[in-house]
Amino acid sequence: MLLAELIASSLRMAVPILLTAIGAVYTERAGVVNIGLEGMMIVGSFWGALGSYYFGPYMGFLIAMTAGAVLALIHAIATVTFRVDQIVSGVALNILAYGSSRFLSQAFFKMATTTPHVNGLFKIKLPFLGDTSPIIILALVLVPLAGFILEKTVFGLRLRSVGENPLAADTLGINVFKMKYAGVIISGVLAGLSGAYLALEHTGMYVEGMTQGKGFIALAAMIFGNWNPQGALWASLLFGFAESLSFRVVQNAIIPYQFIKMIPYVLTLAVLAGVVRKYTPPAADGVPYERGTK
User: Fold this and answer.
1) Below-70 pLDDT ranges, the chain
2) Domain count, the chain
3) Which of 32, 74, 156, 267 is the most buried (most CB within 10 A)?
4) Degrees to nearest 5, angle at CA 191 with 186 and 195
């Protein structure tokens, strides 16, 4: 029974990481590094709560995905069109997301760090999992769907070619900039959905800092998964398990709970440091493309 509860909890904890990691696969396969995924999750959580409070949970999720897409569009304009350093742009967007969410929370709800309680979606009863959010099912469905799109469709082939060799793709008539925009915006939509899941399904409200670095953990999951959705799933489950385990261990721990809470982040650092194994990113990942240059 305890094991079943731990597995169910791990899956729930893994979902926001998984959704964002799938989005990260799209943007990195298009050759754009998106450090701003954390910020897109933040605006998704706030705007999801705001939308649910005024219009209901379905509109909350839709507004959250739109907010994530808007922030992703800003990142695409800055990095693809104007060739701003992708890391700098992502960090700036994270700061913008944090500050704007705090300001708007104060403006709408007279509370800077939280919102009133909001409703989530209806629950589905599943064996071993009990009452389950439909977003969990959607996240699991998106894994094979993303794999199929990236590997079996014309869109996926073009997206991957842009991330590997944009000059060759451009020579073949593929609109490199359009494909990069598409990859970045898809990542923003999924990060916004992930943030809304945290606000509407996990806590029932927006709370400042609720993402807790999950956007960065999702990047680690994407790297650990070797830039493919199936790998990102297993990596996300690993991180979800580590987070779920930390919640349970801390209840009976004899050492300060802060050390237990460090488990997911230590695991993230280990992955990013290449402790597990070496990875091969897309050849043109993080490299701005300018038509007419090699």
Assistant:
1) 1-3, 248-260, 272, 274-278, 292-294
2) 1
3) 32
4) 150
CATH of the domain at 252: 1.10.3470
Specify if 278 maps to a domain: no
Paired tokens of 213: 């670095």
Which helix (DSSP H) or strand (DSSP E) does residue 268 occupy? helix 263-272
In tens, the pLDDT along 119-161 reads: 999 998 887 777 889 999 999 999 999 999 999 999 999 999 9
Sign of CA dihedral 293, 184, 237, 156: negative
Ramachandran area for residue 128 (φ above 0: left; ψ -120 to 50: alpha; else beta): left
pLDDT for the residue 33: 96
* Tokens standing for residue 215: 């956007």
Which pTM does this prediction carry?
Answer: 0.94
Burial class (CB in 10 A: 0-12, 13-18, 19+), 268: buried
| Residue that is written with structure tokens 């999750």 in the block | 41
Does residue 199 fall inside a structural domain?
yes
pLDDT for the residue 211? 94
